[in-house]
């Protein structure tokens, strides 16, 4: 000890740290005085050889536990539904004492919502709570600004001492698309996922009780509504109002039925009945002036990631159009036949069922169904009337009919498999064998569009597993829930029908008759084999 230099540094436990060089000599001398490790019991040898480090560093504090992730809420709803009013109510509530970071996305030319939220920040928020605001303009967070949204959330999480993050989406935003962007960010290892609860984001959707029924039956697109989209916003201008409405409801954990004071009791019952039919998992709150319970907006999502995956189909989010079928959470769609949630104002009898089949549709026979699809003549959704007697509907040929089995279906959605009409030639459509089609109908709007490739278009299950490397739970889900047959993989019909007073048996019969029969399936296999041989020789 006398040979140690005088230049020493005192540690909190009173141990003196010698200079670097003398410290090295000191440790070497200590180790030379120890017997060989092999001559001692293993535990004793390790303890003796590490004793110098124990004395020097035993007072070092243990590593800090990881910081909890900041929960996120997506606040969705049409322009004029009361999103900003609802957010202002939450931020100024005396029951709210947390510091909230707010991201406002407005696609209009003037970001009015952001201005209103910033004005809220100038007053005393609840019991001393405050809000920091980030504004995202000239784009929609569903597409062009998805990366900026994640970056904005990360900036708020790191640059401000916030307890919760709220994203006020634009009126034309699809919350399910934003959730997919969050999942992509987490899978890609984005740093925001370490600090922000992207995988457990909560969705609260605000709907206007007065205009819900008209929006459901609207023919218009978002671009037809003044102030809904920015100039040149082709991404969102073509979106159908009715489909946007149902997608925002289907993605929600909480649906706020606002402006109940301005609506009739029948209008409110229609809205609640439709919402529960679309999304049996969501809590439904009927309010005035956006005065919702604070905990409905800024509480952590109930159930976490596993519950989100489990309930997304029951909530209807699987019906939201995916970027491609192989990316979609196309789980089975067994919906409850009874409503759930609070504020039950009386059941109107909105129910649902799922149609499944491992066979493709015949294109000519499916077109017969679609060409005679009933189009309601009323301008406002009226579930009570539809349940009681059936609305007067018109078909595409202009004839009226109440006898169509689909007349009382108010929403249908899902994936469908269509057989090619011709496997060769310039007018051939052999691509239908590999391509999933997305079926979406709400109110007066109906569309069938491409939704990417079937997983079954890969050569084997092993290729599917390899493609999903790092996501074994998704592979297992696909095999368990989507894989319809070993011959054709996940190619299938999986369509959800929601309505009141419909005859499920008649709907199933109509769809069954549009499927290929046994003889047509044999021809399908022969045509497929010939097509593959032709492709191999080219």
Structure, described:
With 538 residues, the chain is an alpha/beta fold. The protein is built from 20 helices and 17 strands. The strands form 4 sheets. A 7-stranded parallel β-sheet has the order 5-4-6-3-7-8-9, sandwiched between helices. A 5-stranded antiparallel β-sheet has the order 10-17-14-15-16, sandwiched between helices. It has a 3-stranded antiparallel β-sheet with strand order 11-12-13, with no helix packed on it. It is globular.
Short note summarizing the structure:
Helix content is 35%, strand content 17%.
For the secondary structure, the number of strands is: 17
Q: Quick one: biggest sheet?
A: 7 strands, parallel
Radius of gyration: 30 Å
Class by alpha and beta content = alpha/beta
Largest beta sheet: strand ordering = 5-4-6-3-7-8-9
Poorly predicted sequence stretches spanning 5 or more consecutive residues: 1-35, 37-49, 108-131, 300-346
Could you report the average pLDDT, rounded to the nearest whole number?
76
Shape call: globular
The end-to-end span amounts to: 86 Å
Fraction in helix = 25-40%
Q: What is the count of DSSP helices, taking H or I runs of 4+ residues?
A: 20
